[in-house]
Amino acid sequence: MKLGQTELRFVSDGHFRLDGGMMFGIVPRVLWEKRFPPDEENRVGLELNCLLIRHGHELTLVDTGLGTNLPPRQLETVWGLTPGPRLLDKLAAIGLAPEDITCVVNTHLHIDHCGGDTIEAAGRLQPTFPRARYLVQRQEWLDCNSPNERTRGSYFPELLQPLVEGGQMELHLGDVAPFAVHFEKLAWVPGMDLAQLDSLESKRGLLQEVMANDYLLTFYHEDALAAARLLQEGDGYRLVPVPFE
Questions:
Q1: CA gap 201, 189 in Å, rounded
Q2: Secondary structure (DSSP) of 53-92
Q3: 76 CB contacts (<8 Å, ≥6 apart)?
Q4: How many alpha carbons lie under 13 Å from residue 233 in its C-beta half-sphere?
């Protein structure tokens, strides 16, 4: 897809599964299971839609998926990762090497969004994209490095240390809506969200901003509706899919 002189495309790090109750919080299963059929372990499928942005000579990657640093058994059992091509494979398929990426933007530092920031090579962790600047919000960096009992399972700050040591990490809308339905229905907030009422109000404000500016919306974990625009419909609105390569 092109927006003016900027080219956008999704480069997936794969498909994984998480507990449906965690993804939809207090929303009863009967309301979400038809759209997101759970497996026998009550897990629903999620995508790892990394967004590649090409503008002139700059190549920016928004999030990097789960990566390959976690033990294979953990990726399989905890994250339900489906075997298949990963982010670096998909980049290679379109003719790009890790050295071609000039900037990585981490929307936040949950492992499924930044796990691919680093990679093990020559017996040690190294930046996956050696020429890139890595950008993340300052408060998210602080939260990642001071996890509590509830957030510790999502943050792995030790995997990001090579970026700090090499001077590539710089502090500057990730899972506010993991699925499109989380934006369509403001009250649907994932169970892992620590500030659910704040998230609801943030989405309400974001909704007005999106409608006023005709923003293109992308959903990191969505399969069927990865990119969409918001259209006014009577007193309400609806999301309309946008074709994406």
A1: 11
A2: EEETTEEEEE---S-S-S-HHHHHHTS-PPSS--HHHHHH
A3: none
A4: 9
CA 193 to CA 177: how far, in whole Å?
11
Please write the tens of the pLDDT for every residue from 132-171.
999 998 889 989 999 888 888 889 999 999 998 888 887 7
189, 182 contact by CB (below 8 A): yes
CA distance 62 to 211: 23
Distance (Å, whole) CA 17 – CA 36? 11
**What's the rounded Cα separation, in Å, for the pair 58 and 15?**
27
Which of 233, 219, 190 lies closest to 27, judged by CA? 190
| CB atoms near residue 24 (< 10 Å) | 24
User: 17: part of which helix (H) or strand (E)?
Assistant: strand 6-19
Residue at 91: amino acid letter: L
The structure tokens listed for 231 are 């259209």
pLDDT tens-digit readout, 188-229: 888 878 778 888 888 888 888 888 888 888 888 887 778 888
Name the one residue in this structure whose structure tokens are 């050696």: 130
The long-range contacts involving 225-229, CB below 8 angstroms and separated by at least 24 positions, are: 225/179, 225/180, 226/10, 226/47, 226/49, 227/1, 227/10, 228/180
Both tokens assigned to 142: 């602080």
Q: How many CB atoms lie within 10 A of CB 12?
A: 18
